């Protein structure tokens, strides 16, 4: 009734694999529609493939015919259940009626299968054994079969495009995870050829096994790997299966035909034994060969350590801006090491938590993660001060569930604490390699020193950022203190126009009261009142302009760079604020600004603060009557500004110290020593340079040099 048939063995192995995966997926989540429909799809495929094993091994045509009918139950429902699985996977609503209709059509085909010869009508006999012969209505089933598969193809592509356009990249990636194996599985339909009388050995088990294995991995693990990894897994799996099959069949055939011809079962057993030995000795080498080949075309398996070190030395560790530093780090690590995801968390001292500041390859849940100081993962890394990898999830010492949950959210295979002065300032997270390799000791020998160096770079960048903020706050406090000392001058500047306006109005009203205008006509009175109103408007506009100028100057600079900074305009704005105070101190202002002076690039408000500090310092250096000369000219593509005073000057041995913080030559209580320090910081931030020369009892000259704006050069 049955005999040992080497051609049936692959279908037996494939059916056992798929049955195991069906049970595994179902048990993993019994309530999920995705898991249930996928398990049912596996069972249909198992009926088909295991039925092949029995039918190919049968020696009796009656037994083979019964097997043929049972096989077709699985075949009939494969497209129906697959469509149901795709609908569940994509979470498409309002398809219940169509799904039920498909099952009804499947039931009708099944009834016809067992009651008539319209679906199957007999058997073919090929070199591998019996094969089903199709009936007259089989073509109608094939149309139904391909309609459902085309519909699945359209739905998957449509939902992938929709997810991509909505920037739901993780969802789009998961759909690709199903879509590409699905395309591969369609090749299994070539098994229909032998049912139409074409002697072609059915190899659909290869493609269905590939599809089911990869999709099982996607459903259970939810690892949203990039599509290259899926292709790689597919090629390696299919290549291994094909190689094992070839090694199982070819030696057996050779031994049976040429060595033990006519010996029957003994020849088959010898052939099987030799095939098994060859498989045991070569399967690992074949696997490595296939991985090497796919790596060659899809990946660079080993990243270049020298490139990583050089990139970090030249492009990462020299960056002082914290935002650029963290984003460059993540970008370069992801590209050079070819990893699926990467993230960098830094300590937020205010919230006492580790916040994700840069990432690649993480979904929304991962990007929104925040690890509190009491978080298990953060506290584990801070306490151990050692890296943590997914290899730590061993059975002997399993990781706590909370750590595993955070690791999954961050998609990390490796977490390295960033330690500086025995304090953890951040966490570097690295995802799986695209080549699926584990992180080796060679990797750690590179990554751990890099992490230590990165900790120093981040610490320096944070310190510089905090210093910049402190300087800005100090500059603002200094400026507000100076504005307070200008109150007398500002009061005069505002009261003067308002007094003129009030005087004009009072004089007009008194003249009317005293009858000085009784001989005037209404038209003359109207003209007189109109002139007074115009004068009042003019004077109040003057007062308003002064208050606006003061208010604008008092606001902190925002660091907005523009390429149309006019030196003459900015100097005039500052002189409008300090002019009255200088006049009271009997200090003359002399301006010598070149006509048509090119614009420079910079923050207008910051440059006003520079001129304000230097002009006011010059005024304070003049004990009695004196003058301040402001010159500006173009020289060799730069704009040169000199602010010269006739004050007491600075001793030569003090010149090197005047830009140091908290150093001042003023009398006690008259300066914080931050003015010139902040001036130099602001000048350099605006791409300029500052110089000073001075002689005691003759005066001091501060020289500013800024490059001409690019627009001005054009």
How would you describe what is shown here?
The protein is an alpha+beta fold. The protein has five domains: 6-223, Rhopdopsin 7-helix transmembrane proteins; 226-298; 305-461, Beta-Lactamase (2-Layer Sandwich), CATH 3.30.450; 486-555; 562-714, Histidine kinase-like ATPase, C-terminal domain (Heat Shock Protein 90, 2-Layer Sandwich). Helix content is 61%, strand content 13%. It has helices at residues 9-28, 33-57, 61-90, 96-115, 138-165, 169-186, 192-195, 204-221, 227-259, 265-298, 305-316, 322-337, 364-367, 376-384, 401-409, 441-485, 487-513, 522-554, 567-584, 604-621, 675-685, 710-713; strands spanning 120-126, 129-134, 342-348, 353-360, 370-372, 388-389, 414-420, 423-430, 562-565, 587-593, 600-602, 626-635, 638-645, 689-695, 699-707. The strands form four sheets. A six-stranded antiparallel β-sheet has the order 5-4-3-8-7-6, sandwiched between helices. Strands 10-12-13-15-14 form a five-stranded mixed β-sheet, with helices on one face. A hairpin with a 4-residue loop joins strand 3 (342-348) and strand 4. The longest helix is centred in the middle third of the chain and has 45 residues, at 441-485. The chain is elongated.
Please give a quick description of this structure.
The protein contains 22 helices and 15 strands. It has 714 residues and is of the alpha+beta class.
Task: Describe the structure using short key phrases.
Rhopdopsin 7-helix transmembrane proteins, 5 domains, 714 residues, single chain, six-stranded antiparallel sheet, 22 helices, Beta-Lactamase, alpha+beta, 15 strands
